[in-house]
Amino acid sequence: MKEPVFLTERQVAARYGVHQNTVRNWVASGRIVQPLTLSPGCVRWRLADIEEWENAKAAKSKAAPIDTGGQHA
Q1: Which of 1, 22, 40, 41 is the most exposed place for a label (fewest CB within 10 A)?
Q2: Residue 73 above 90 pLDDT?
Q3: By the 8 A CB rule, do 13 and 20 touch?
Q4: Which pLDDT value is given to residue 5?
Q5: Burial 29-43, CB ≥16 within 10 A → b, else e
Q6: Which SS3 state, helix, strand or coil, does residue 6 take?
Q7: Interval 10-56: pLDDT, tens
Q8: What is the DSSP string of 7-68?
């Protein structure tokens, strides 16, 4: 079995091309999978959790109808 890979807040931010404050806001609003709190001020995300969340978001966006604003494509 492979050892789990953990990402720092900085790595998660870099993965999505956003600032670390954005990642904090996403966590606070529940917009991203919650990290593990290892100690006060030390949080990590399991890469497998992030990838699962990304896959779920991608599947949901594919299933959602495209809003063309009332216009036909």
Answers
A1: 1
A2: no
A3: yes
A4: 95
A5: eeebbebeeeeeeeb
A6: strand
A7: 999 999 999 999 999 999 999 999 999 999 989 999 999 999 999 99
A8: E-HHHHHHHHT--HHHHHHHHHHT-SPPPEEEETTEEEEEHHHHHHHHHHHHHHHHHSPP--
Calculate the CA 17 to chain-centre distance.
12
- Supply the pLDDT for residue 22: 97
The residues that bridge with 45 in the sheet, in sequence order, are 7
Angle at 54 between CA 68 and CA 37, to 5 degrees: 135
What single letter denotes the amino acid at residue 72?
A: H
Residues 48/4, Cβ–Cβ less than 8 Å? yes
Output the pLDDT for position 36. Answer: 96
Measured from the Cβ of residue 45, the count of other Cβ atoms closer than 10 Å reads: 23
